[in-house]
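This part of the workshop introduces the protein records we will be handling. An example says more than a description, so a record of this kind follows.
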Amino acid sequence: MTMCAWALVVITFPFSLFVCFKVVQEYERAVIFRLGRLVSGGAKGPGIFFILPCIDNYARVDLRTRTYDVPPQEVLTKDSVTVSVDAVVYYRVCNATISVANVANAHQSTRLLAQTTLRNVLGTRPLHEILSDRDAISKTMQVSLDEATESWGIKVERVEIKDVRLPVQLQRAMAAEAEAAREARAKVIAAEGEQKASRALREASEVISDSPAALQLRYLQGAGLKYASSVSNGQYSDYGGGRKLRGETAFKHPSYSLEELNAKIRKEALPPLPIRMYRQTIESFWECF
């Protein structure tokens, strides 16, 4: 048969050149069968290759990376929760001869295997791992698929988990749990703030109790700040010797001056405080009027 094919090529020359010479691209390979047997030398290409008419046939194999979107799979997790998961698989043909000779449809076989592998891997893990550890799941799937498809001439390069869809009831339960956790943290933070404020007030009360004059100065300072805030809001108006709010006297001058306050402190034999603090506080108070 081979000699007859060569004779046919010679007889029909040069027209046989259009039939005998084929071209494959850089990303393709040609697997040639002669009388049903693989031609020695493996896949041909890229470039021009020669076939004998009538006795040779060939199959083109694309070596470029392909992507496959795994459709959503209903999976029962290890903790008995039903979730819907989809993924994407990146694979390519690494051995053109094996992919043609060892399996009828390498691409379809790889896609079906990806679906079953996704269900098998996720079925052995609880829900919290599926949600938080996607990288490890993707790596496990990639290794498992690569080992299974090696005999088909397929190289699985990457697997990515795209989306994990939870039942509506489970989503509501998880949202309620997260809200309760946030409220608990807020209450803890508020309690810590109250505790710190209570300590600060206790320390302040101890300092003021040691000096009654400091309590009087604190009262004058608070009154001045309150008056200044009210004036800035436009609530007070001038009337006679005092300030009025809606027709009534809201605040009047204190009944003693700086000298009287110092004499009162000396008379009551109170613990002495720096005279500068008295002066600055009362002068700032008088500036409000």
User: Anything to note?
Assistant: The CA atoms of residues 99 and 106 lie 6 Å apart. Confidence is low (pLDDT under 50) at residues 236-258, 268-274. Residues 18-62 form one domain. The two ends are 123 Å apart (CA to CA).
